[in-house]
């Protein structure tokens, strides 16, 4: 629980105290301004009123984690900051510079961990909204105002980043007067993801092939960018909004597109939009977004950017960390443990590369957990785990210090017979089983055939120059077996392979 101490006086302190009082954590307020004291007391905020701030007064407060000194009088602010810094040397000290244009900030900066300059903050605020940086916000708002009912669709079997981003975009849409429903296809089987939804009480709609999308006159995609690729939407469905942090392989067609692969999570982008639209974070939304960033950056250790840290810092004061603890400590199903055991038992090691076919899958999310566990094996830098569910082959891959772009590697290996993509060190793919799913061969034979297809393609691409942009050799040098791809003839199989549908 974050402990905060606010000191000073005036309208800024009064408004800040009212805002912080509504957030999680504890708050103490001290002021020498009778009007500020009366206003806060009327709102039920306890206040210590003093005539002269000194070390004795300061020592009477419970030691805080954060001290904020907010007063329009620069000399008064410096005096309070100097005393508070000496009494609470381990607390973060934030001071307010006020509007004194002629006074230097050097003295206050030497006393504080951070100085809030209102002139600079106002300039940044206006620049983000009326300058070039605000153009995205204006375009998004215009699109939302033209939609009567919006479906915000995550990728199949959504993870916390996709779910949190969808909830945030729905909140923005509703603020623009656009009724919205958060939708997804597939299943949510990962125990953390189920806990994430249940603990936060998320309202989601699980779509199926039979659902008629005509009830929506607008569709938004979050955490992925193309219909029918990692979702079950029609490939020709018009898309209105795309917000994603995965790098695309081809242009994305939508009325509004925001693709920023420089950040570690789509949730980071949505925090930025919520701030720019001046939409307040409630506890559940802040908790969801922080968990989305945490998961997609692997605890702020993978593909992290300054924007991710800034977004997290913006969320932390409102997050319920007790809720986060409940989400991160769920029970694991016996079926997930079974998949992990199968992955360990069936592993095949080629140098520093480990591959494992687990056969039939009961829970798709178990693949990712198996890949995470196997990457910890000594001498292994790259892991590929795959299995079969609902007439499809699902692939989950992880890498660590392997010198490859795993997302590009999976696109080159599987992008032409399925959908694939991801990050440098974490990626996935899915391939329709085609006629193999209807084969009369025994399960062992099917297992062997799939293992040969998946493992050989993956190893071939790893052995090639991953950074090359030339077409995969499979496109021009190999005939694709029609039975394996589910086509009517080898020629049609090759045509499908060479069509290169683009990024997943």
TrEMBL record:
SUPFAM superfamilies linked to this entry: DHH phosphoesterases
Extent of Acidic residues compositional bias: 478-490
Official protein name in the record: Bifunctional oligoribonuclease/PAP phosphatase NrnA
InterPro entries: DDH_dom (IPR001667), DHH_sf (IPR038763), DHHA1_dom (IPR003156), Oligoribo/pAp-PDE_c-di-AMP_PDE (IPR051319)
Signal sequence range: none
Ranges for domain DDH: 151-293
Annotated DHHA1 domain residues: 352-452
